[in-house]
Write a structure and sequence with these properties.
The structure holds two protein chains of two kinds.
Chain A: H1 3-19, H2 24-40, H3 46-62, H4 74-92, H5 106-125, H6 128-139, H7 144-151, H8 155-177
Chain B: H1 2-16, H2 27-40, H3 45-57, H4 74-78, H5 96-122, H6 124-134, E1 154-155, E2 172-173, E3 197-198, E4 242-246, E5 261-262, E6 271-274, H7 282-286, E7 291-299, E8 305-312, H8 318-327, E9 330-332, E10 334-336, E11 339-341, E12 343-351
The chains are: A mainly alpha, B alpha+beta.
């Protein structure tokens, strides 16, 4: 799809969502990965990434009526909201880091989002026990000890499964890139 | 190998705790940490689904997050205006149908208030007339006959065959040790006491040495009267007169009874038997002025009015015309205990041009 066609389709989606907020679901699905990728690489923890991402979409939905299409894609507006929220967060945290909308490289964000999409696909291809360990360790933020207790395995065995899963993912990513 | 696995896990723990892990020297570990970093930035499917549900259905997503450090202050959240016709970001779902219903109900309520105010202004004269009509004249009411009298008074006697003789009453006091008597049956009492009537001590009646009923016509022979219980008169109870108790006059309970009655309490209303219409004053006739004058009068036992006064004036010379007319009226007198008595009544004289 050419860029102009994509813009036209996205513009129709935005206009539809402005008329009927239920249509915001399509905009959400189309932009979630890039917003999350942008936010997650700028905050230290998953909880903070999820909080900021949720707030970005809340503010986007509430302010959608005032959105005017001026040329840049819709994701630029979403990342602008994200950058403002991140700047506010860092300011409260005592840092002066500012993420300016002009500094956002949309291409980099798209690459990050694609990489995360790839990882999500690769996770599904992992053996069952390895996938369970990765999901509990990275998504549920569980400790090795808790995972071992839940799965009825030793901590050493869980660490071995984690290591093998990461090795598998590394090899598959490398193969995709090669 | 195990050492590398432990080193990898330590770095993962530090990264997940929000700390910056040491950069490993081992190239394999560095590549694995890059994978770990990518995994850290990979969104959770459950979070993605919850956020979508939150946005579209109003379910709470962030409540399951262990931290809220990144959430903006509550004031910032309040500044987010929820969309009118969809599910908003607040915890309460805002639905378009609810807003439409609320708007309609408020509009109806405001319209009712406005309409009632307009009706009041437009029909104020009719409403005032109707309210006036709802308040009937007190003359329309016939008070029920009460079993007892409503005035104070007293009476007495010692069952003599002759009615009580004329005389004066003793003074009033707050208590009575000895009732008055014309004929003293015990001329040498062990404890002499001054005869009194119970009533206001400040109330002074004509005094003399000869006790009796001031209202009696008989001067001689002296008599305590046909009543009972001591005292003078035809009543009973140690007083003077036809009533009950240690007072004087008709009625009961002490003090002074008799006088002018009011309708009710055993007193019937006087009935007009001759009531010519009042004349119109020239001024009122020219002005086509209509209305009513309320007079207050005492109708005596003879059926004639006296003590006429204007209680509610009408003006234009009609008050005097009403007084002139009522002076000529005659009544069947009010009755109490089958005897005609004086009674105070209000009389409404209506002036109407036909």
């Amino acid at each position: 799809m050419k860029a102009t066609e994509h813009d036209t389709a996205e513009r129709r989606l935005v206009e539809a969502a402005q008329r009927d907020p239920r249509c915001f679901a399509e905009l959400y699905e189309a932009n979630f990965d890039r917003v999350y990728a942008f936010v997650a690489r700028r905050v230290p923890s998953r909880e903070e990434a999820e909080d900021v991402t949720a707030e970005v979409f809340h503010q986007a939905l509430s302010g959608l009526a005032g959105f005017e299409w001026q040329g840049p894609p819709f994701i630029a507006w979403l990342l602008g909201i994200a950058s403002n929220l991140l700047a506010r967060h860092w300011k409260r945290a005592g840092n002066q880091l500012e993420v300016l909308i002009d500094d956002i490289e949309l291409e980099v964000v798209a690459v990050d989002a694609d990489r995360q999409t790839l990882f999500a696909q690769l996770l599904d291809q992992l053996p069952e026990d390895q996938r369970r360990v990765i999901e509990r360790r990275f998504f549920a933020q569980r400790s090795i000890r808790d995972i071992a207790r839940d799965m009825g395995r030793s901590e050493g065995a869980i660490k071995q499964l984690q290591f093998r899963a990461l090795e598998t993912l590394r090899a598959q990513v490398r193969n995709r890139h090669e | 190998m195990n050492e590398m696995i432990d080193q990898l896990d330590d770095s993962i723990s530090a990264l997940l705790a929000g700390q910056k892990p040491h950069s490993p020297q081992n190239a394999q570990l560095r590549e694995l940490m890059q994978v770990v970093n990518d995994l850290r930035c990979t969104p959770n499917h459950e979070f993605r689904a919850r956020l979508r549900a939150k946005l579209l259905l109003g379910s709470d997503v962030t409540s399951q997050s262990p931290k809220s450090a990144m959430l903006p202050p509550s004031s910032d959240r309040a500044a987010i205006i929820p969309p009118l016709f969809s599910i908003g970001p607040s915890n309460l779902p805002i639905r378009g149908s609810h807003l439409v219903l609320s708007f309609a109900l408020h509009a109806v309520a405001i319209a009712l208030v406005g309409a009632s105010g307009w009706l009041m202004v437009e029909h104020r004269t009719a409403i005032r007339t109707r309210v006036t009509e709802l308040i009937p004249s007190s003359e329309d009411y016939v008070l029920p006959v009460a079993p007892g009298a409503i005035h104070g008074g007293g009476g007495g006697g010692d069952q003599d065959k002759l009615p009580a003789s004329h005389g004066t009453a003793p003074r009033f006091a707050k208590e009575q040790l000895t009732p008055p008597a014309v004929i003293v049956r015990n001329e040498a009492p062990k404890l002499p006491a001054e005869p009194t009537l119970i009533g206001p001590p400040d109330l002074v009646l004509p005094q003399s040495d000869k006790y009796g009923d001031p209202m009696a016509n008989i001067l001689n022979p002296p008599s305590n009267g046909t009543g009972s219980g001591g005292g003078i008169g035809s009543g009973h109870g140690g007083g003077i007169g036809a009533g009950e108790g240690p007072g004087i006059g008709e009625g009961r309970g002490g003090g002074i009874g008799g006088g002018v009655y009011h309708v009710g309490g055993g007193v019937s209303a006087p009935r007009p038997i001759y009531d010519p219409d009042p004349e119109y004053s020239d001024e009122a006739r020219k002005a086509k002025f209509q209305g009513s004058v309320v007079l207050i009068a005492v109708i005596g036992p003879d059926g004639r009015p006296r003590d006429l006064r204007v209680m509610r004036s009408l003006g234009m010379g009609l008050d005097q015309k009403a007084l002139d007319a009522v002076w000529k009226w005659r009544f069947a007198p009010a009755m109490k205990d089958n005897r005609p008595v004086s009674v105070q009544v209000s009389i409404e004289v209506v002036f109407h041009l036909y």
